[in-house]
Every structure is written in C-alpha cells, then in structure tokens.
Amino acid sequence: MKTIDEQTAEKHKAKMAKRKAVQDAEVAGKTVEKGLLIVNTGPGKGKTTAAFGLALRMIGYGRRVGVVQFVKGAWHTGEKDAFAAFGDRVVWHTMGEGFTWETQDIKRDVAAAEAAWAKAAELLVDPSISLVVLDELNIALRYDYLDLDMVVSALKNRREGLHVVVTGRNAKPALIEAADLVTEMGAVKHHFSAGVKAQQGIEF
Amino acid sequence: MKTIDEQTAEKHKAKMAKRKAVQDAEVAGKTVEKGLLIVNTGPGKGKTTAAFGLALRMIGYGRRVGVVQFVKGAWHTGEKDAFAAFGDRVVWHTMGEGFTWETQDIKRDVAAAEAAWAKAAELLVDPSISLVVLDELNIALRYDYLDLDMVVSALKNRREGLHVVVTGRNAKPALIEAADLVTEMGAVKHHFSAGVKAQQGIEF
C-alpha cells in the first residue's frame, strides 16, 4: 500500500506533468525575435532599477548598453559608479538639470531635454549598442519639453533588433500604444509614507 | 510690455517655486533611516530586474550584497555573469532546481527550497552584507515549500540596517504586512502575448 506521502508526490507529479505540457506548448508558440520597446511607468518604485537590471543582464552577454538620464543630473548615484566597472560596455549620459521644481526655469528644462534627446538619437543609430535606457524620458514628455510625435516616431522606427527602455511616471498613451512591453509599477505600500527618508543604495 | 514667452516662464517659475516648497516640506518630514523589507510582486516584468538594479546601486557605494535564487538553477543568466565583475562584493547562491513543472518532484522542490533558505539565513546574519536579494522566494512560499511564519519572522527580525528584497508573484499577505515597501508590477502589455519569445539579455 502507498503511504500518504507517496500519494501526494504522485498527485503532484501528475499535476506538474500536465502543467509542463501547457508551458511547453506556450513556449513553442512564441517564435518571434525582435528588439523591444519597453516602458516602465506607474507611481511605484522599480521603474529605473528594473531598467538598470535589464542593462546588467545585457552586459552579462558582452553586449553594450547606452543610458541617457533626462532628469537626474546634479546628484550622485550608486548605479553610475557601479556601471563604470564595465568600461566602454556602458555609454552613460547624465543630461538632466534636476527636478523641474529645482530649476524653476522652463527654458532651461526644455534645453536640457533637447540636449538629452540629441544624445538618445545618437545611441539609437549606434550599431554597437544592444539596449538603450531613456531614464525619465516620460517626465520630459509629460511636460511637453519634447515633441511627442517626434519621439514616438523615432522610437518606433528604431533599427531592427534594438531594445529600448523608457522609464518615468505618466507614460503618454501614444508611447504605450507603440510599446511591446509596458509595466505599471504600483505602490502597494511605500516607506516614504512611514516617514522613511531617501537612503543611499535604495533611492540613489 | 512682457512677451507671451516671458509670461509663460514667469508663471512656470511661480508654480515650481510653490511645488518646491511642498517638496521640501515633504522631504523634511522624512527623518527615519532603516533597513527596509522590500517586496516586488505582481504578474508584470521587472520584479527580479528591479531587485538587481537596487543591488547594483548598493554596490556602487562599495557595499556588499547577497543573492539567493530560489527557483532559477539550471539555466544561464546574464546578470550572474555581470555581477561576477564585482568580485567578492557580491555573494551569489543559485539554489533552485528550475520550475516546479520541470522537476515534477515535490520532495526535491522542498529540499531545494530548504537549502536555499539555509543560504538566506547565513546572509541575513552576515554583518558585511548591506542588501540581501531573495529572488523568487515568493514561489517557494506560495507552494508551502517553506514555513511562512518561520520565514516572515526571520525577515522581520533581521539585523538593524539590513535591506532585504523578496521577489516573485503572489506574495503572501503576511509578508506584505511585514514589508516596508511593496511594489506590484502590473502587466499593462506583454510581448509574450504577441508571440515574442524569451530573448537573451531581456528574459535571462
């Protein structure tokens, strides 16, 4: 007679064998390979860090990545220092002038966004780059610092095989429409609400 | 007489000055520094990559991070190779045996989860580590491969100042309750639904 443990193990095995068949069929049904337009948006934490995690994954295969930061500028970040370890496998442009409520100067904000976009445009046509991260581009689009049609059209017409990640809250519907993968980071619970300050290694 | 451009710039400046006052007050109100228990959950992409982006940020400050992978095992990932560049600043334990529908062996899954937790427990008490990533721990908890109370209690009682990130879908309510920061990655749009396969540098 079989023990209860053996019966449980057998039931589990049968269930998982069925599940594997479903999974295998799903995987077999996915055959397209393409450069993805990825958007990380929403109010929660993880938009930029997920983009950098992806960059790291790509670097692990010996590929090159490009990063343009549209808002971050003045302050020091841990990620920038860490990516420096990869030498010329990372092309990094910190082009922001800080938050728009810090500059309080719309002309300066627009000029910074345009300069950042010029760097982005260079990376988009650089054949040595496999992934481009456009960090906080959504902020520049939200405040109309850049022309939405121009940006979306450039991203849609990126060269074949190129992956692009756009981050920032309030992604524009036209960008979401053009994207292959859109993740909304939802803040279920946030430590800022409990009075915790921005900390080294966590927020910057 | 002022031009329309000048009027717009002045309005913008006034609005942003107000906004800065609000932001400054908010920042001033946040004074707590603490090691955070962070949970990245939900069906969307970015749970693990955001954890690794955070690890990278921490490494950028010369701190050490520990990673335990509860599910990933058999297959090669770019992130593991990339983190190797940081030498002993990263302690990496790939302890998984693959998806539960691949092993089809509940005893083996439980043994793997227990072995992974033993490594996690070591990292939690290692004073040289600033951040511990418990990748896909939620999967082990969901299938009851580990005792939920034991895990949540160990995470709640982690040493002061230690940051921990737990990833994986279907985070248990008790873990969410114990956490300081919970992000739900929502899949607004996913390329798998459009027949795109898992690609190097993107999914692994």
TrEMBL record, chains A, B:
GO terms for molecular function: ATP binding; corrinoid adenosyltransferase activity. Its EC number is 2.5.1.17. Transmembrane segments: none annotated. InterPro entries: CblAdoTrfase_CobA (IPR003724), Co_AT_N_dom (IPR025826), P-loop_NTPase (IPR027417). It is found in: Cytoplasm. The keyword Aminoacyl-tRNA synthetase does not apply. The keyword ATP-binding applies. GO terms for cellular component: cytoplasm. CDD domains: CobA_ACA. GO terms for biological process: cobalamin biosynthetic process; porphyrin-containing compound biosynthetic process. Keywords: ATP-binding, Cobalamin biosynthesis, Cytoplasm, Nucleotide-binding, Porphyrin biosynthesis, Transferase. It catalyses: 2 cob(II)alamin + reduced [electron-transfer flavoprotein] + 2 ATP = 2 adenosylcob(III)alamin + 2 triphosphate + oxidized [electron-transfer flavoprotein] + 3 H(+); 2 cob(II)yrinate a,c diamide + reduced [electron-transfer flavoprotein] + 2 ATP = 2 adenosylcob(III)yrinate a,c-diamide + 2 triphosphate + oxidized [electron-transfer flavoprotein] + 3 H(+). Residues 8-27 form the Cob(I)alamin adenosyltransferase N-terminal domain. Belongs to the Cob(I)alamin adenosyltransferase family. Required for both de novo synthesis of the corrin ring for the assimilation of exogenous corrinoids. Participates in the adenosylation of a variety of incomplete and complete corrinoids. This is Corrinoid adenosyltransferase. It comes from Mesorhizobium alhagi CCNWXJ12-2.
